[in-house]
Design a protein that fits this description.
Blueprint: H1 4-32, E1 48-53, E2 59-65, E3 71-76, E4 97-101, H2 119-132, E5 137-143, H3 145-156, H4 158-164, E6 165-171, H5 178-183, H6 186-203, H7 206-215, H8 220-230, H9 237-245
Parallel strand pairs: 3-4, 3-5, 5-6
Antiparallel strand pairs: 1-2, 2-4
Helix pairs in contact: 2-3, 3-4, 8-9
C-alpha cells in the first residue's frame, strides 16, 4: 500500500514534470512565433572600424555608421555586453555619424590592459575615443555601466563636457557605484569589493568558460530569468537568447 506521503510525493513530482513540460512549450512557442527570429543579431557591423591603443596596453575596438563628420553620437554599452547590443543603431540613423566601441576587456577590445578596472578609467577611454574620432560635438548614449561612464566623463573632464558634449542619453543607469548610490552604505560597498574577487577569478579563466558556454545551452528557467531582469513583457525571444549569449 502506498501511504499518503508517498502519494503526495508522486503527485508533486507529476505536477512539477507537467509544469516543466508546459514551460518548455511556452518558451518554444515564443521562439517560433517571434517576428525577429530571423534577425541576424551579432552579425551586423559598422561601415568603418579601427583600434585605439591605450597607454597601459589596452586596445579599444571602434566601429562607425553614417558619414564622416565632426558631429555625432557615441554609444557606450553595459557591462558584459559589446557593440552588438546596438544592433539596430549599427544600421545607421539618417545622415548622422554614429560611433560604437567595446569597453576594454569586452568583445573585440582585447587585451584589457594593465590598469585597474574602474569607472574613471573607462571614462578616460571614452575621452580617447572622442578625440581619436575627431568629434567636436557629441551626444553620449550610455546604457547601465555605459551611462555611469558618460556621467563620470562629465565630472572628470569638465572642459570637454562644456565644449563638446551636446547631450546625454542615459538608459537604466546611475552615478557612482550602484551600491553606494542606492544604499549609501560603506559596509555594503566593502561587501561588493569582496564579492567582486570571485568574479575576477572567473575572468582569468574566460577561455575555459567560453568553451563551456558553447556546450551548455540556456535552460527555460534561464530564459525567463533574463527576460524578467532585462526585458519588457513582449520582448523578442531571439533578443533574449542573444543577450544571454553575450
Amino acid at each position: 500500500m502506498i501511504g499518503r506521503r508517498q502519494m503526495a510525493a508522486v503527485a508533486a513530482g507529476a505536477g512539477l514534470a507537467a509544469g516543466l513540460v508546459a514551460e518548455h512549450a511556452v518558451v518554444r512557442r515564443r521562439r517560433t512565433r517571434d517576428p525577429e527570429r530571423d534577425e541576424p543579431f551579432g552579425e551586423r557591423r559598422g561601415v568603418r572600424a579601427r583600434t585605439i591603443e591605450r597607454p597601459d596596453g589596452a586596445r579599444l575596438f571602434v566601429e562607425e555608421a553614417g558619414p564622416r563628420s565632426r558631429r555625432g553620437a557615441v554609444f557606450v554599452h553595459a557591462s558584459a555586453m559589446r557593440t552588438d547590443v546596438w544592433h539596430y543603431q549599427l544600421a545607421g540613423l539618417g545622415g548622422h555619424r554614429l560611433v560604437f566601441y567595446d569597453l576594454r576587456g569586452h568583445g573585440r577590445s582585447q587585451p584589457k590592459g594593465d590598469a585597474p578596472f574602474s569607472i574613471p578609467l573607462l571614462a578616460d577611454d571614452l575621452v580617447a575615443v572622442i578625440e581619436e574620432c575627431g568629434l567636436d560635438e557629441v551626444v553620449l548614449v550610455g546604457h547601465s555601466v555605459g551611462g555611469m561612464v558618460a556621467l563620470e566623463l562629465c565630472v572628470r573632464h569638465a572642459d570637454l563636457a562644456r565644449d563638446a558634449i551636446a547631450g546625454l542619453v542615459l538608459a537604466n543607469t546611475t552615478y557612482c557605484p550602484a551600491v553606494e548610490t542606492v544604499a549609501g552604505s560603506a559596509a555594503l560597498t566593502r561587501l561588493e569589493r569582496v564579492t567582486r574577487r570571485p568574479l575576477d577569478a572567473l575572468g582569468s579563466q574566460s577561455h575555459r568558460i567560453d568553451v563551456l558556454r558553447r556546450v551548455v545551452r540556456p535552460s527555460d528557467a534561464v530564459f525567463w530569468a533574463v527576460a524578467f531582469l532585462a526585458f519588457g513583457p513582449a520582448a523578442s525571444a531571439k533578443q533574449i537568447d542573444f543577450t544571454y549569449d553575450m
